[in-house]
Amino acid sequence: MATAKKLPSGRWRCLVYVGKSENGKRKYKSCTADSKKEAIALAADMQLNYELARNPLKLTLGQAIDRYIDNRSNILSPSTILGYRRMRRCNFQELMPLQVNTLTSEILQASINSAVQTLSRKTVANAYGLISAALREVLPEKNFNVRLPAKTKNEIKIPAEEEIARLEQFIRGNAIELPILLALHCGMRLSEVMGVKGTDIYNGMIHICRARVIGPDGLTEKPPKSLKGNRWIPMSNRIEELIKDKIGNDEFIIDFTEPQILQRFDHILKRAGLPHMRFHDLRHYFASVCLKLNLPERYAMDLMGHATPGMLKKYQHILENERKTTQNAVINYWNNSRAVVDN
């Protein structure tokens, strides 16, 4: 344990050995704190980090993940960092104290098998993806052979036309109307809805040039999800009516936080007697309307902020009422034809 000495200023200092210089002289780093106990604790952390830097194999999995996240804190989006820290804190906790050099494929597979009993496939896959990335950084030559839960094909849910009509009717005049309509009429992601300012609105168009997401330090501004995400979107008359007093103001037009919007949206659905849907399903509906109107793919991509055509294909579903109409038309054709033959 490092020895703490009191400085003339009243603070406490510890010297930590951090190796030798090129000339063979011993090198020390200094750490100071307001109390003796704090100075010793800081010195212990500094000493541990020095030892781990010399020999990464002594890292626990938790420390390896922490280092992986810290190394990318200025590169990845705040919401991604927040998600990583949440996974580090909540998932695969039985593995976190283990040193990375003791981990085997069998140990990892056993934890995966246990996790799938209580967590979704996606949660398990994402959490293990973080573990795998951290291990590759520390053990680049070691391959772990594990099997993740099989992917299941989830068809995108598109609300029915009558559901959307009832939703629009029910939210009219409600404080939550504007964020819902921005997603429904403009196909905006929730983070994009949160990021619109009055200065982004001009001549009946909304410029999507930023997003606001929840990061480690609260709400944080960031660029749109992709280069294509920076786009102009026409707005409906109702949206223009709702924001007319905010146009030109250098302030966000939505005062709610993301959790407040989601909570109120869920409450509105229950009060309206509508089935559960995600806020993002409103964007799905917008995409289906684009396809229903036979918009050229490149223009639909521009409106949605998609970088590749493959993303738009996920939305190629027929609206439920039109699907039934088409099916009934086929059956009626054959029924009517059969009736003519029978007569």
How many helices does DSSP assign? 14
Helix content: 40-55%
Shape: extended
CATH architecture term of the largest domain: Orthogonal Bundle
Number of spatially distinct domains: 3
Q: At the fourth CATH level, what is the homologous superfamily of the largest domain?
A: Intergrase catalytic core
CATH class descriptor name of the largest domain: Mainly Alpha
Taking the sheet with the most strands, its summary is: 3 strands, antiparallel
Give the topology string: H per helix, E per strand.
Answer: EEEHHHHHHHHEEEEEHHHHHH
Helix/strand class: mainly alpha
Low-confidence stretches: none
Biggest sheet strand order reads 1-2-3
Task: Please provide a written account of the structure.
With 343 residues, this protein is mainly α. It is extended, with a radius of gyration of 28 Å. It has a three-stranded antiparallel beta sheet, covered by helices on one side. It has a three-stranded antiparallel beta sheet with strand order 4-5-8, with no helix packed on it. The model has no long low-confidence stretch (mean pLDDT 85). The protein folds into three domains: 4-54; 61-138, DNA polymerase, domain 1 (Orthogonal Bundle); 161-321, Orthogonal Bundle (hpI Integrase, Chain A). The chain contains 14 helices and eight strands.
